[in-house]
Amino acid sequence: xxxxxxxxxxxxxxxxxxxxxxxxxxxxxxxxxxxxxxxxxxxxxxxxxxxxxxxxxxxxxxxxxxxxxxxxxxxxxxxxxxxxxxxxxxxxxxxxxxxxxxxxxxxxxxxxxxxxxxxxxxxxxxxxxxxxxxxxxxxxxxxxxxxxxxxxxxxxxxxxxxxxxxxxxxxxxxxxxxxxxxxxxxxxxxxxxxxxxxxxxxxxxxxxxxxxxxxx
Length: 216
What we know:
single chain, disordered N terminus, seven-stranded mixed beta sheet, alpha/beta, globular, 33% helix
């Protein structure tokens, strides 16, 4: 942890101006730790995925390049018919705030879901063959055994399930991008990629999300 903090400090000193530094620290903290919120302030490290040093650096780099032009986030448009024929189980930490935000987003778009809180989320992700670099705070498994990892917008869940590629087992949004469904924060948005998870363990870009409007 000490080494990680030192690298963050060096990154800030080399690349960030004083005017942006405080904002980016807040964005990074929101993106990386919002899903670990707990009423007691203590969480089980074995049950909650910890973002890697590399993912944190990438999040900070994206924030630095995009924060000045970040668009205003509007209330997502809900379509109760979008996922009305889809049922799924959401596996998450019991105290994950952004997971609850994502559940609200998908249920308002018709998803029928129940939440479970396994003691060891990492083992569950192993079971469903979610690559380590694709992981986020929650894992969703439909009754048809398709896997959706992290803050995937309902719009793209429906698009995928309407015509799933033969080689695919699901979609993932790695990490916790600010501005994705369930990760809304003021008017901030960081572009991100929705990745396709393939049955052979490979991944590929499913779609690039460059604006808030693409999620609606």
